[in-house]
Amino acid sequence: MYAVFQKELADHFNGRRFVILFALAFLAAIFAIYVAFYNIRSVVTPSTEFIFLKLFTTSGGTLPSFLFFISLFIPIIGIALGFDAVNTERTSGNLSRLLSQPIYRDAVINGKFLAGLAILAIMIVSVVAIVAGLGLRLIGVPPSSEEVLRLIVFVLISIIYGAFWMALAVLFSVFFNRAATSMLASIGLWIFFFFFMSMIAGAIANAQIPIDQNSSVALIAKHYEVEGAIGRVSPCALYGEAVIALLEPQVGSFNPALMMISTLAAGRMLSPLPFSQSLLLIWPQLVSIIALAAICFAVSYIRFMREEIRSI
Amino acid sequence: MGQVAVETTNLTKIYDNFTAVDGLNLRIEEGEIFGFLGPNGAGKTTAILMLLGLTEPTSGAAQVCGYNPTREPLKVKRIVGYLPEKVGFYEDLTARQNLRYTAELNKLPREEAEERISDLLATVGLSQVADQEVSKFSRGMKQRLGIADIWVKEPKLAFIDEPTVGIDPEGIDDILNLIQRMAKKGITIIFCSHQLHQVQRVCTRVGILAKGKLVAEGPIDRLGRQTVGGGRYRIEAQVAQLQPGLIKSIKRVKGVIEIESSGNSLLISCDKDLRGEIAKTIVASNSPLLEMKIEEYSLERIYKKYAREA
After folding, report:
1. Cβ distance of A94 and B90 shorter than 8 Å
2. C-alpha distances out from residue B26 to A311, B48, B146, B215, Å
3. Which of residues 17-46 of B touch A (CB under 8 A)?
4. Which of A93, A101, A308 sits opposite B88 (nearest CB)?
5. Contact (Cβ atoms closer than 8 angstroms) between residue B101 and residue A7
6. pTM of this prediction?
7. How much helix, strand and coil, in percent to the nearest 5, is found in chain A?
8. Searching chain B, which residue's CA lies closest to the CA of residue A307?
9. Exposed (0-12), middle (13-18) or buried (19+): which is B230, by Cβ within 10 Å?
10. Are B15 and A101 in contact (CB < 8 Å)?
11. Which residues of A touch B46 (CB under 8 A)?
């Protein structure tokens, strides 16, 4: 398997796709740091904790934050790394040659997946490192140990999230013989989850529990709960909630209703959650993303292993 | 009798209701170039895939160099090379890099592999373009690279599936010569094709597959006698002038079974090669002998006959 992994990694590094993706990611990082730098002053007050994390979450009016960029790019990178993993091998006639070598069949798919994961990790780590490094230079506030911890977990979750999209793309690449079809299928699913799922969730919640200005707090809370629960079908929402909880501990909860209620009840802004509590909060999201990635990978693995090789 | 390279007993593969290979019994000895013939869809590739352990047989068993390909596919793949019909390479890698990858997958020691790769690229005539991307290669070049690719692991047995499709005559020559060179190095070769004259040129023995069944098997000349000539040799002789009594005296030659004449030419069936005796008889009868030849059984005729029957 190591030979496959090594070769795939080398292929990625030599390929144009890698250059394009990396260029895009870097561009996003630079742009995000620019946005953050010009707007960070307006969001930071003397009592603000976790100033360093603000680098990643600050947006400027219509200009999006780093978090938005990365949640947009990770699926694209994941899909780009996986959509042609198996079907191009098949159509190019390499697969039969490869499978007649003395390797286990799963070595092919495992090696490819691991190589993609390595590339994904390299990209995400380096992009976050660039933002952190440039930010440190620009705002001059060093991160606290907790912030570093939160960033590390953020990077890990992002890699897992990317792995999910890659696993999905690999899945399509096993099922569809044409690379273009599998790419379109993956992108289509991503667009559905990213753009439409929240709308659908909102529509269903409106139909089920209509609210207006005179609605009781309990009803509003219920409304948002339903909306959130439906929205969580989308892995994009899961990831969004997880990273918000991690990088904006002040907000504390990604549940707007809960937040509103507690604000009303306490009559003050929430104090930031400790790291362990944030972790606890995102645990279900994290497990779900891991499970989704594992399921996608497992299905493509099984399908690939069981596939009858006919005239290839 | 040499060592057995491939032996199958009642090897059968059924794909939902469609029988691709039907009770195949095959025995191929080491050092042979075995021609595996049959029309498209006769089950040649399926049989090979089963022998490689890439597909499981529905029933029956196979032995490849002493291993069971279904149970021990890795051991089989280590000593068996397979050049598929639609062979492909990584287009953005060079010829050398492609071979290097195969060598790595076979866990060859690096230095040994490098040396072997250079030697092989020279053997298949690709030294000049060894460091060019495969995307620039012609079909013939790719096919030769394919031969180098199976040769890298120094297999005991090589399956070569339709290597000459879509290649110009010169390229075909190169490939057939390479196959013969491989065989000289002691590699048993199973050559799948329906390009009959090519099979006839390189193969020592052929098997004809039709609708999943092995309909004939053996050396080409014997197959020809069995199928076309009813097991006989047919000798055609032309004389300048047919002397009366010649036909009778030829009939007296021991082994001659039948004789037909039309004008000055004679068609003699006999149960062994009697050209010498017959020539002597004709000359002795004072009929000048103009031409004499033994009928060659072209694979094409044999093949067509079986293809029709199936």
Report:
1. yes
2. 21, 12, 26, 11
3. 45-46
4. A93
5. yes
6. 0.84
7. 80, 0, 20
8. B55
9. exposed
10. no
11. 310-311
Contacts of A15 in chain B (CB under 8 A): 92
Distance (Å) of CA B191 to CA A131, B85, B173 = 60, 11, 15
Angle between helix axes A275-306 and A105-139 (nearest 10 degrees) is 150
ipTM above 0.90, yes or no: no
Cα–Cα dist B21/A278, whole Å: 62
A267 pLDDT band, cuts 50/70/90, is very low
- Which of A208-222, A267-281, B78-92 bottoms out in mean pLDDT, i.e. has the lowest? A267-281
Q: Is B94's Cβ below 8 Å from some Cβ in A?
A: no
Nearest-angstrom CA–CA distance, A308 and B16: 12
Under an 8 A CB cutoff, do B102 and A92 touch?
Answer: no
Q: Do B86 and A98 touch (CB under 8 A)?
A: no
Could you tell me the pLDDT band of residue A278, with boundaries at 50, 70 and 90?
confident
10 Å Cβ neighbour count for B92? 13
Q: Which residue of B has its CA nearest to A2?
A: B105
Strand pairing class (B4-15; B59-64): antiparallel
**Facing residue for B105 by CB, picked from A11, A103, A310:** A103
Residue with tokens 């598929």: B84
CA-based nearest distance A296→chain B, Å: 24
Given a cut of 60, is residue A241 above it in pLDDT?
Answer: yes
* A93 closest CB neighbour out of B45, B54, B87: B87
Residues of chain A neighbouring B102 (CB-CB closer than 8 A): 97, 101
Radius of gyration of chain B (CA): 24
Q: How far apart are CA A136 and CA B8, in angstroms?
A: 71
Task: Render pLDDT for A25-76 as a digit per residue (tens, 0 to 9).
Answer: 888 888 888 888 888 877 777 767 788 888 888 877 778 888 888 888 999 9
Model confidence over A80-116: pLDDT tens digits? 999 999 999 888 888 888 888 999 888 999 999 999 9
Least confident of B84-98, B102-116, B286-300: B286-300
A86–chain B Cβ distance below 8 A for any pair? no
Using CB atoms, pick whichever of B78, B84, B104 lies closest to residue A3.
B104
Q: DSSP letters of chain B?
A: ---EEEEEEEEEEEETTEEEEEEEEEEEETT-EEEEE--TTSSHHHHHHHHTTSS--SEEEEEETTB-TTT-HHHHHHHEEEE-TT----TTSBHHHHHHHHHHHTT--HHHHHHHHHHHHHHTT-GGGTTSBGGG--HHHHHHHHHHHHHTT--SEEEEESTTTT--HHHHHHHHHHHHHHHHTT-EEEEEES-HHHHHHH-SEEEEEETTEEEEEE-HHHHHHHHTSTT-EEEEEEESS--TTHHHHHHHSTTEEEEEEETTEEEEEESS--HHHHHHHHHHTT--EEEEEEPP--HHHHHHHHHHH-
